[in-house]
histidine kinase (Nitratireductor arenosus), 506 residues
Amino acid sequence: MAPRRSTMADKNIVDRTKAHRNADLARTVRQTRDRLSQQPGNPAFDREMLRLHAGALTGRTAVLPVLAAAVAAAGLVAGMGPQVAFWAALTAVAYAGLGLFAAHIAKKEVTDIDVSSVRVLLLVAHAVTGLCWTWFALLSCEACQIDQFSTVKGVVLLFAVAATAILAYALRGALLATFALPVVAYIGLAVNLWNPVDAAMAGLLAASLPFFSYIAGHLHRSAVMLLSFRTEKDGLIAELETAKSISDEARRRAEEANLAKSRFLASMSHELRTPLNAILGFSEVMAEQVLGPLENETYRDYARSIHDSGHHLLALINEILDISRIEAGRYKLKEEPVDIARTVEECCNLVELKARNKDLHIVREFEPDLPQLHADERAVRQITLNLLSNAIKFAPTGGEIRVRAGWTAGGGQYISVRDNGPGIPAEEIPVVLSAFGQGSIAIKSAEQGTGLGLPIVQGLLDIHGGRFELRSKLRLGTEAIAIFPASRVMASLATGTAHARKASAA
């Protein structure tokens, strides 16, 4: 059995029927927040730095064993004996062990790394390699052919310090753990400080250790910054993916709801109009006594009431269908030349009887020689009738309705309907222009309607590229203005076409 959708689903962005997807989204958001909050000192952040250090050692630890092998080869040529070869082999083994341990760390998941124990083990491994370099610093060569052997050892140690500073910058203390003891051994035990060259080399090596420590610290801070930026970038990407997933889900549900609404309205339109036609037809036959007299006057009044109520319900159905098509973007204009003055005049004639029943006087003011509009005549007629119906509904008995049509300042055309009714408070105008919205004073002082007339007018004008203005003051009346753009005036269209032809000919 399919899970039932919650009755409050429209208020929730996430689809309740996809619990696993909701859990994934929540987990992604939580992980994103955690990663964005990572700072140096945070275990998760330190794990990333340890993995970065392990990755650097995995691919580049061969540099120092190669240097040791080169020194051993040179020592053998110089007659140092097997001790230098044994030292080189031991150094290679120490760095191989460090590389293997680093490779093991690099393969682990970040969450599986124990920061404290891994850090200690890495520092111990670096200290072991430092013992090898300490042995090198203590090497002597009485019978070899190298006159400045101490200087050569200092240069080799200097290269090793520089290489380690570049390779091990991600682990704080790695450089000192490796070369603090070798430098001390070189300066204290293996160098003749009375020799100016040896003394200078000792001073240079002693100064290089804090210098390269500073370089390693600077690289470490840069790595921290880059890692922080990368973490924030990954977090933002995760946030965007989460937002996109939620947006896609909301869009899908909105499309489903819109499709369901369209199907419902299409079905209800057919289902309601079929019995309404019968109600309207039979009630009219009864009210007009076509098939014979109705002796009881009350029955005839009932028939007329049924007929009027049916007309009201049919108008309501038509308005709901119109606003639905407009909101869905499916209202198709049948554009043709429209004489706006003639159309407005016909609409005034249609509502004249209704206005007389309320003792209202309709004043017509049309500017002469208005060119035709390129518009949908049915839409123009509906706009005018809706504005006139509202004016008749809210104008007081014995009042006046002023209907105008003419030019706008921008070269377009307008239809204006003004009444002297109770008016609308300024704060209620957005409510009146919303679907099914009605002002408080209008509800109290006039017969209630559906609240769809003005939204339909506004929607039809938007489709034509025009705009709708509603000007109202309390106890002074309301003026509704439908404005069509200059681009829809046939004279301007003809002028634009002529200009285009002249430009193409030129």
Notes: The chain has three domains: 23-241, 266-327, 335-493. The beta strands are 335-338, 361-366, 373-376, 400-407, 413-419, 467-473, 477-484. Residues 34 and 235 are 9 Å apart (CA to CA).
